[in-house]
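Exam prep: given the inputs below (a chain plus zinc ion), describe the expected output before reading on.
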Amino acid sequence: MCEGNGLYEPADVTDHIVPMKQGGAKWNELNHMGMCHSHHNRKRGLESHGHCVVTAVGTDGLLPNDREEIVNILLAKDRQNEDLWID
Ligand SMILES: [Zn+2]
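Solution:
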């Protein structure tokens, strides 16, 4: 399931919550999140505008300190129906 809104959409992407190019852990499941393409693209849009989640140091790279953080940001953007920040 896509965790971008937590409910209905099937996931078709395994997202790295902390992107690997920002030092995110590649294999640690704590850094993985199932997402639909729509939410994944939105998340990448945020990242391309410099957004970073708060991170914690894991054994093979950075992990999200709170995996709800990105979900809450995406939900807030959904509520605002704001798409200007999407590439
Ligand atoms: Zn989604």
